[in-house]
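Same chain as my last thread, 313 residues:
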Amino acid sequence: MTREVKSLWGCIIVLFACVIVLAGILISRLDVPVGPPEPASSDSSSVVASVGSHKITRAEWNRELEQQYGGLVLEQMLTNRAAEQEAKSLGVEVTSEEVTREIKRQMKGYESEEAYYQAMKEQLGMSPEQLSQDMRNQLLLEKIATYGIDIGDADIDEYMREHKGEYEPINSYQMAHITVSNVADAEAIIGRIKQGESFGFLAGEFSLDSFSSQQGGRIGWIDEDDPFIDHAELNQVSLMEVGDTSKPVKIKDGYAIIQLTGKKEVRPEQHDEMRERIRKEIALEKSPPLVQWRKALREKYGAAIADAAFSSQ
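reply #2:
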């Protein structure tokens, strides 16, 4: 897990996107051109879930989504429409290359592009196309918010000096571990590994880390300063060579056996991309918060929710 994935900005985007997606299935019909009414069907009465003998119909589910999230989704839709108009008047746009670059930056910390998209699908129910559209909306709003704010090279240089640690290369390790409660168990497992038994099999059988044990002990790629990994493990793995298996390592909740399967130096970004991102971050700090921009854009372009049930949310 890298510093990029842990960033607060990324968390805010993901949490907000989650709310949008939960309601999107229902509210998306508001964004479709009105046509002839569809023939009546039993679809609204179809069962989408059940608890014992109690069944929940699609109509009940849709109604709950409207009540819980309808106002939020309509507000976001209005913000996006207003932002599009403002961007056109300012002559700014977001390119597909910018969207791709930002998504790839968020992928850091995942084992592969496929793993990232799979995680987004499982956690948020978002397809690659939905992720791209959500990212485009965010980047467009940021460009509007920072339009006309001039950030010079000297400002960027000073920012980099003040945040030096964030932009230096760091070591990243691909590792697996088995955690047990006492050193005797750890030594016994190490003995079995030396005799040729599979590390992954033993992790599944004996590791107390329920999450990684299901993955054969694999944790994936971690940074050398990862706050979610025991400090003693990070110290040990920094001394290992790829392919090594450690001796028992004393950790907070017992002992760990570590296997190092990969090691690399990670640079946060290419130099030019990094400076451009810093330029944007400084400009955003000088601009009013994005939440204020959303409200201001809706007011500027006369956005209004006609249904009182949604406007009161």
